[in-house]
Amino acid sequence: MADNLDHFIDGLQDQIYRETRAAYGEKAFERWQNMRHMGPMEDPEGYARITGSCGDTMEIFLKFQTDCVKEASFQTDGCGTSAVCGSYAAEMAMGKKPDELVKITGEKILKVLGGFPKEDEHCAYLAAETLQEALNEYMIKQTRRTV
User: Fold this and answer.
1) Could you give the CA distance from residue 113 to residue 47 in angstroms, rounded to a whole number?
2) Which helix (H) or strand (E) holds 51?
3) What is the DSSP letter of 118?
4) b vs e for 50-81, b when ≥16 Cβ sit within 10 Å of the residue's Cβ?
5) What is the CATH code for 26-146?
6) 106: nearest Cα among 79, 94, 88
7) Which of 100, 105, 106, 135 is the most buried (most CB within 10 A)?
8) CA 59 to CA 47: how far, in whole Å?
9) The dihedral of CA 108, 114, 119, 120: what is its sign?
10) DSSP tag of 90
11) pTM exceeds 0.85, yes or no
12) pLDDT single digits (tens) 98-140
C-alpha cells in the first residue's frame, strides 16, 4: 500500500514539474528549485518594499562599492513566480552602476526568463519597480551626503 502511494506521489510530482517547465520555461524552473540572492540584508544602502496589485510584497536590498552594486538580495511573501523574478532582478543588478540599474525593467526580466504566462507577468514588473525604488533610496542618500 505504501509503495503504491509513494509511486502515485512521485508520478504526481513529476507531472507538476513537467507542467511548470512547460508554462514557465527551464530558466524559471531551475531558479525556483535553486533560489539565489534571497534573504534580507543588514544595513542596505538602497532598500524598497512594495506590495503589488496581486497582494504579493517584494523587498529589494542593495549595497554599493565605488558606485556599483556589490550585493543585492530580495525577499517576498509572494508566489514562486514573484520569487523567481526577485531573484533575477537582484542578479541583474550585481555589478551595475545607477545609470545601468534604471534600465532593468519588467520587460527585461521577462526577456531574460524567456517570458511567462500573461497572468504572471506582473511579478516581473513588481520586481523591477521594487529595484527602481531601492535605487531611488540609494540616490537620495547620496544626494544628501553631497549637500
Assistant:
1) 24
2) strand 46-51
3) G
4) bebeeebbbbbbbbbeeeebebbbbbbebebb
5) 3.90.1010.10
6) 88
7) 135
8) 7
9) negative
10) H
11) yes
12) 999 999 999 999 999 998 999 999 999 999 999 999 999 999 9
